[in-house]
Design brief:
The complex is a heterotrimer. Helices cover about 15% and strands about 15% of the residues of chain A. Chain A is an alpha+beta fold. A two-stranded antiparallel sheet of chain A has the order 2-3. The longest helix of chain A is centred in the middle third of the chain and has 5 residues, at about 40-45. By secondary structure, chain B is α/β, with parallel strands linked by helices. Chain B has one domain: Thiamin diphosphate (ThDP)-binding fold, Pyr/PP domains (Rossmann fold), CATH 3.40.50. Chain B has helices spanning about 25-40, 50-55, 75-90, 105-110, 110-120, 165-170, 185-195, 210-215, 220-230, 250-255, 265-270, 280-300, and strands at about 45, 60, 70, 95-100, 125-130, 175-180, 205-210, 240, 245. Chain B is globular. Chain C is an alpha/beta fold. Chain C has 2 domains: about 1-185, Rossmann fold, CATH 3.40.50; about 260-395, Rossmann fold. Chain C has helices at about 5-15, 30-45, 55-70, 80-85, 85-95, 120-125, 140-155, 180-185, 225-255, 280-290, 310-315, 335-350, 375-385; strands spanning about 1-5, 20-25, 50-55, 75-80, 100-105, 130-135, 160-165, 170-175, 205, 215, 220, 260-265, 270-275, 295-300, 305, 320-325, 360-365, 395. Chain C is built from 13 helices and 18 strands. The chains are: A alpha+beta, B alpha/beta, C alpha/beta. Chains B and C meet through strand 1, helix 2, strand 2, strand 3 and helix 3 of B and strand 3, helix 3, helix 5, strand 9 and strand 10 of C. Strand 1 of chain A pairs antiparallel with strand 9 of chain C, so a sheet runs across the interface.
Chain lengths: ~100, ~300, ~400
């Protein structure tokens, strides 16, 4: 099957996730949240969300608790570095079983 | 007086998809994400070849949810003019036109077109995301690479020339708005965009963008390094409204504090400055102190 | 309405009648009177358009590329080094399939500086994926601009309307200016398949891979090679669309002819001179003179240079003893580009007949060197009698 009948004849891209593939596979370390330290978790109230603001990949949710989309998280570690209460730790991917891995 | 945006009041709608080809910890990804929030849905983008071309995605998939025209390296601002002219003839006065180019695409090859559009006073916002080198092609020097930085084509001696002051060049075009921002201060960027959106003519943004592979640091420290650049007084956050200069955000606070972090800390956090000697750092420190003495004096 | 004006004004009137909405131009001699005139139309309110006085030719085409991508009809014009400075953008406009119409007022290129006419500028852009049409007089200039907009928008390929600097751009001749109603009947408003739109966002001209790739709907999209193949394929089918344009034009405006070539006294000719632009009208004088001497010659102007009307040209030259190509440009290191293309067409279409015309190549008027009719006539005559030179022969050279 070729592209003879494709609707475009120029480079005309439409938006969608994962242009770079499942970029979670780039990750060497994974961010893990300690809810006992995480400010919005502790207060059970919308607050802080510094991890959400600085995430370059838009993979941290602005929710209580914040969650990480591991399919795309590249494991840069900015969230762990910027968390004011050190609630996020970067953990070696080797620590996780195959089932945990995305 | 514009209310300052906080993390909690920042809109949650995203205009960039996850899973881009940008490097892990890319400073541009942060500034772009927040910048698009401020620009909003009714925006058309222009992008020349740069790291953003890669982040934006490869045909037929785009990472950005806004219409975007990819253009040749030297033609960014002229393309903005073209879109504006088209919109004008179509009676569209509501859509914001925004160009995002790198520092090479701005300070070097794109400067002529940018100067032309600014002189014509075409009504768009130009963003120069300054990662201080041709990072997309492997980190060669650009007009905005700072003195002392080792790059792929200043491999042993580092760059021997000063960084080109592009915001000052743009301010000389009598623009209504010129801003210097940083990826480490996304809310400052956000508020500045909102502030100038309805101002007439060309608006220019210079955004300092930490770059893990180009600057040589562990990706996790990107925001810290961006912040250090500001806290050391090395890179200043400011705005120039109709010729009126004003420090903003953390830089404004530094004037009150009267205390800068030694610039050595900024240099030593990045491998690109590894060849800077103590004497050279002392010399740069003196220049920073002199610049800030001027700011303090203005404040008195 | 018949008027007497210069060739640049003929072009400007064509652009005005076609209702281009965005005009961007940078001054270069001999194009300037054309774009000055357009700025007058816009400032006087005679034309509803944005006139953008850009800071370079590179930006002139950038403005046109962007405005066309945003869904407007655009116009620009240039000459010589201005066209060369655009070169990157010229390629870009073709790859993006934008129906831009650009007048190229032919002039020699530097170094050394020379402001006079030859055709090295547009010929050097032959391989960029633009349609190239050449004009031989003022009527052809205005008519070709109008046809060009229709054709460009029909096939989504940009067009260069080329005419000789000074010889046509600055000389005054009578020509007919069509009515606006006629042009409106010929040329519908520009409605592209897609224009930049926040309600329907697309990212245009993104990096495209060597191989095909799935889109977000699961459909297999082109690779770079397929996109470029389609440009070539549709350039070739443009020849048929150009015939349709000529037919429609003739119906509405009451004038027209062969869309690709303009033969003069060729039917019974044994030898045919071939060229591009105003030179072919000068060659008619030579042909008439030689006919009086009993030499059976004709001349054929090539109006369409890209896509190359190889079949039409070969058919027109079938059975001729010789073809003499006169050119104001050349591919340095070999010969005139038109001569090469023409030989290729003859070989392709006539080799099987076992009767290929002999082809000779003359280079004339480089950098505005006077092309004296008497000298042209003598060289054309010589070429009907013997092989003048193995290499392209330069007429009027004073070495």
């Amino acid at each position: 099957m070729g592209t003879r009948n494709y609707k475009r004849k120029t480079s005309h891209s439409e938006h969608g996730p994962g242009d770079g593939g499942r970029t979670g596979s780039w990750r060497v370390e994974r961010p893990v949240f300690d809810r006992s330290l995480c400010i919005p978790c502790k207060r059970n109230k919308e607050s802080c969300f510094i991890c959400w603001l600085f995430c370059p990949e838009i993979v941290i949710s602005r929710t209580i608790p914040p969650t990480v989309n591991l399919e795309y998280c590249k494991g840069c570690g900015i969230c762990a570095e910027e968390c004011p209460t050190k609630a996020i730790t970067m953990v070696d991917e080797a620590q996780f079983s195959e089932e945990d891995k995305d | 007086m514009q209310v300052k945006t906080t993390i909690l009041s920042l809109p949650t709608e995203e205009f960039v998809h996850p899973g881009t080809r940008a490097c892990a910890g890319c400073g541009l990804a942060i500034a772009y994400r927040v910048g698009l929030k401020a620009l909003g849905k009714d925006t058309m983008l222009i992008v020349p070849p740069s790291c953003l071309t890669v982040l934006q995605g490869l045909f037929p998939v785009a990472s950005t949810k806004l219409p975007c025209l990819n253009v040749t390296f030297a033609s960014t601002a002229a393309a903005a003019t073209g879109i504006l002219a088209a919109l004008k003839t179509q009676g569209n006065e509501h859509t914001t036109v925004a160009a995002w180019a790198g520092d090479g695409g701005t300070s070097d090859i794109g400067l002529q077109a940018l100067s032309g559009a600014a002189e014509r006073g075409d009504n768009f916002i130009y963003f120069c995301y300054d990662n201080e080198g041709y990072m997309n092609t492997g980190a060669q020097r650009s007009g905005t690479t700072p003195i002392g930085a080792v790059t792929a084509n200043t491999p042993f001696k580092g760059k021997i020339q000063q960084k080109k002051d592009v915001p000052a060049i743009m301010a000389a075009h009598h623009l209504s708005y010129v801003a210097a921002c940083s990826a480490a201060y996304p809310l400052d960027l956000y508020d500045k965009i909102l502030k100038c959106k309805d101002m007439p003519g060309t608006k220019y943004f210079h955004i300092h963008i930490p770059c893990p592979p180009g600057w040589g640091y562990d990706p996790r420290y990107g925001i810290k390094i961006g912040r250090l650049a500001v806290e050391t007084g090395y890179y200043d956050l400011y705005e120039i409204i109709n010729g009126e200069f004003r420090l903003t955000a953390a830089s404004e606070k530094l004037v009150e504090k009267r205390k800068l972090v030694p610039v050595r800390e900024y240099f030593r956090a990045q491998s690109r400055f590894r060849i800077l000697t103590d004497a050279q750092i002392a010399d740069i420190q003196n220049q920073i102190d002199a610049k800030w003495a001027g700011y303090y004096k203005k404040d008195e | 309405m018949h008027i007497i004006e210069n060739g640049n004004v003929a072009a400007a009137l064509g652009v005005k009648l076609c209702r281009a909405n965005v005009i961007a131009a940078y001054p270069i001699t001999p194009q300037t009177p054309l774009t000055e005139r357009l700025s007058e139309y816009v400032e006087a309110g005679e034309m509803k358009a944005e006139y953008i006085p850009v800071e370079s030719e590179h930006s002139a085409l950038a403005v046109c590329i962007a405005a066309s991508s945003a869904g407007t009809r655009v116009s620009t014009a240039t000459s010589a080094n201005g066209l060369l400075y655009m070169h990157e953008q010229v390629q870009w406009a073709a790859g993006a399939r934008l129906p831009i119409v650009m007048c190229v007022v032919n002039r020699a290129v530097g170094a050394p500086w020379n402001i006079w006419n030859d055709q090295q500028d547009s010929i050097s852009q032959r391989d960029t994926g633009w349609i190239q049409m050449y004009c031989a007089d003022h009527q052809q200039i205005i008519d070709t601009v109008i046809k060009a907009y229709w054709l460009a928008e029909k096939v989504s390929i940009p067009i260069m309307v080329c005419y000789d600097g000074y010889i046509l751009s600055h000389t005054y001749m009578p020509f007919d200016v069509p009515d606006q109603e006629q042009v409106d009947a010929f040329l519908p408003p520009f409605r592209p398949d897609y224009a930049l739109n926040p309600e329907d966002p697309a990212n245009l001209n993104t990096v495209t891979l060597p191989d095909v790739r799935m889109d977000v709907h699961g459909e297999l999209a082109h690779g770079y090679m397929e996109i470029r193949y389609l440009l070539q394929e549709e350039m070739r089918t443009t020849l048929a669309v150009a015939a349709e344009a000529e037919k429609r034009f003739t119906e509405i405006f009451g004038r027209g002819g062969d869309p690709y070539i303009e033969p003069y006294r060729c039917d019974d000719a044994e030898y045919v001179a071939v060229g591009l632009g105003s030179l072919t009208y000068q060659l008619r004088v030579c042909v008439d003179a030689l006919r009086k001497e009993g030499i059976n010659v004709g001349v054929m102007g090539v109006r369409f240079y890209r896509p190359f009307p190889d079949e039409a040209i070969a058919n027109a030259l079938k059975g001729k003893k010789g073809v003499i190509v006169f050119e104001k440009a050349l591919s340095y290191g070999y010969e005139g580009a038109l001569a090469s293309d023409l030989k290729s067409a003859l070989y392709e279409h006539l080799a099987y007949t076992g009767a290929l015309p002999v082809v000779q190549n003359f280079i004339v008027g480089i950098g505005g060197r006077d092309i004296r009719t008497e000298e042209l006539t003598q060289n054309l005559k010589a070429a009907t009698q013997h092989r003048v030179s193995k290499e392209p022969a330069w007429i009027g050279l004073k070495l």
